[in-house]
Amino acid sequence: MDQRNKTRDGMTTRRNFLQVGYSGLLGMGLPGLLAGRSATAAATGAIPGRAKSVIVILLSGGLGQHDSFDMKPEAPDGIRGEFKPIDTAAPGLQMCEHLPGLAARAKRLAIVRSMSHPEGNHLCAVHRILTGHASTPRGASDLDRVASRDDFPCYAAVLDSLRRRSDGIPNGVALPTRLVEGPLTWPGQDAGFLGPRHDPWQLKLDPNQAESKDDSLALPDGLDPARLHRRRHLLGQTFVVPTTGDAFADQQDAALALLCNGQVGRALNVEHEDPRLVDRYGHHSFGKSLLLARRLVEAGVPIVQASMGIVQTWDTHTDNFPRLKNDLLPPLDRAVSALLDDLDVRGLLDETLVVMLGEFGRTPRIHPLKPGDVPGRDHWPAVFPAMFAGGGVVGGQVIGKSDRLGAYPISRSFSPPDLAATIYRALGVDTGTELRDRLGRPLTLCSGEPMTSLYSTAPV
To answer: Where are the annotated coiled coils located (predicted)?
Structure first.
């Protein structure tokens, strides 16, 4: 092939594709095309996915296992905590008294109690959860661990690199705000070494105002999507449009497609949503974020990351029990319960995998124990819980087990790479896919194994 018809990445240009590739597809015919896809899937070992979309609900800061889904009522003082367990709709499954909505929907949930990894630093742990990989060492301090273009890409970025689309629907949306604190930007939120063209779209909402909205898709008065599309078409006929491989051109194309399509813009406009449904989600940032997540999934976005709060919202080193009881667990319970019901009523739950977890758990021992001090729990990555629902997940079950103190797994543990493999498998992405970093070095997409126990009741 003439090298002038190739980009820097070795991909054929639009013109070359139109001249050669499209005619080749016409010559192949539909049966041949389908046969080719089947042969490719067989050769790569790709497993067809059950889910069309994945919603990752991130509890930034780390949810304590003892105070949510893995309570230890028989543990000694100083470990079991102040909350009481309650029975759920699933026989034998108990959870925190401040999660009554999820308890009532337990037959839809699979609770994993043996998630585990070795990283107790927020930034590195978030990177593990959102990519399935350890972060690249760059230094000893937190300032050296901020987001970098050497990071491994997040799930949405990988999907975008493998299934680039031009229909105006992004492959990934993150909301309500970027995980940033001062000069620190948490790694794992973008495309890393794949480059900015594959970054998920970051929705910008004020986490302190439940009714805030992102106006980035709002067109000026007098300019509608149809008119914008005509302008773009006229521009393409007047000037030479850069070929695929030009990062700016790719991002411009994606932005214009997003504006011209209008589906995502409509999904972000909740003004016409049934007020009773909005009430069920709750008039707070948790509820608004998950309502938007449902609307984005309904619009065709395959991966939505909804952070429940800003960085370290769930980092309860002090005032653990009042914060969970009054500020965190009730709105989370309400919003996630509404999300599950809403997806189910619309026929979307079976094709949407919902995953909820923090980047790690909290210490078994409560500190400090002196009278008058405010009790809290510290970082604990050795064992922590995760909740799964939808996308073919068999609900009403507990997977994995921690010891009597909730400190370490005593059954098979599951790692962030296993979480990544589960998400990729749900979307039909081959975990053995090879990516290349900025130096051209080959990297395997995922080293984990899909958590198949989520889809059956066989013992782990």
So the answer is: none
